[in-house]
Write a structure and sequence with these properties.
Largest sheet: 2 strands, antiparallel
Order of helices and strands: EEHHHHHHHHHHHHHH
Shape: globular
Distance between the termini: 23 Å
Low-confidence stretches: none
Radius of gyration: 21 Å
Length: 279
Amino acid sequence: MAKEIEGTAEITRIKPGKSWLNFDLKDFWHYRELIYFLVWRDIKVRYKQTAIGIVWALLQPVLTTAIFTVIFTQFARFDSLDVPYPLFALSGLLIWIFVNSSITMAGNSLINNSNLVTKVYFPRLIVPISATLGGLVDFAFGFLILLGLMFYYGVSLSPQILLAPVFVGLAVLLAVSCGTFFATLNVRFRDVKYTLPFALQIWMFVSPIFYPSGVLSEKWRILLTLNPLTGILEGFRASLFGTAFDWFSIAISVGLTLLTASVALLVFTRMEDDFADFI
């Protein structure tokens, strides 16, 4: 986007970027108020006309943790865990619920905002990004519950907790990347709306959310490492509970997350010009 002065009028000309990854941070700063508006709108709409409002953000991880605690402490015991199972499950659930809900919201964001996308100019990438950031509010409330449980079980905080925001940031980048990718495809292929919930369900089962990766054989642990969420989950838990980091798994997750972000941005920039025709 370039501004030119013709006579007394200022004319803004929108031109395609020269780079294969057309990403201008200055545009995002210029439209920062729009990001805030879209995030706040999504948060209000999510709990509008609900009887208990934001409490729903707490019930989902807490009740799910309680159910799986009963299942995996009474029927399938994990004796190798370094922390009580409720802490293990809730820490994984917080990351997963954020990633799952963010990708679901972002995947439908361009379609749901078709009037905005087709009528005014702004960086279209703002739409899936804002849909993702709204999930951080739910994550923050759930994290407070997790801290309370850590206090209840006598798990003290270590200096490693300073690295927790790094893994939350990686989860955000992964969610934004996947959400942007599916949102782009969803504009042209409406099958994505039906495929996405099934794909996310499979992703949940192949991620160490409710079970530790140590219960798997070496061959399956290697395959599990190729899941970008594995290193993020294990790194987040290690930073919270002061256990050892699996730097190999974390490095694989960082690499795969950056690759996913690059592919998503490439697909988005290549298909962005046709949004108005298909949306």
